[in-house]
């Protein structure tokens, strides 16, 4: 890895979720961080084969983030894998609260607590798992919310923001609760996806590894220069496509 990760700390949101747990496993097994912090509404359960000597788990209240400012200090790489669906949330309002407001509210505090100079951006690399097809101008709730969140993160106050656009996520562990429709879709679509060499099904461990590699290796960049831009406040914002996630994360096409 080309980045100097000596005495560096990783902070992970959504580590109990499908993608976040794979990010956590990757940084604990192969990362060079001296500390890995998870923050969420509950702790993560890991198998004994995953090294946990660098792991610090924090249980927080997303409705009272100011009470947890201390937990957000002195971090270098922030992996945000918070996400849900409208069905799981119960309503559009609850979906937006969990999927967008929690993300942006915590990002704002992280930027504030890690500034070394009030006139400069926080020296933090923020990595966000979004979705393929996100669009702030979409008429549909899910892609619109993701697109709005992406745009706001570019203005949150970080030196660097990397956004990942995976396709249909394939879990590597059983979902809780069980999702019948998702299981049926994978059973039907996966053989077609592999037969024709498509990349529209993306294993969550591939996403986790890709996010980790991008954080630890500054030489990894989107192949299309159009996907690397400066935000209005000067943050370097990179968008990684689903195909690039497969390539970086090592998934077979």
From TrEMBL:
Pfam families hit by this protein: NAD_binding_10
NAD(P)-binding domain residues: 14-135
Recorded GO CC terms: mitochondrial outer membrane
Primary residence: mitochondrion
GO terms for biological process, alphabetical: import into nucleus
InterPro entries: NAD(P)-bd_dom (IPR016040), NAD(P)-bd_dom_sf (IPR036291)
Subcellular location: Mitochondrion outer membrane
Protein topology in the membrane: Peripheral membrane protein
Gene3D superfamilies found in the cross-reference section: NAD(P)-binding Rossmann-like Domain (3.40.50.720)
Membrane-spanning intervals of the chain: none
Tree of life domain: Eukaryota
Membership in a protein family: Belongs to the FMP52 family.
Record-given protein name: NAD(P)-binding domain-containing protein
Source species taxonomy: Eukaryota, Fungi, Fungi incertae sedis, Mucoromycota, Mucoromycotina
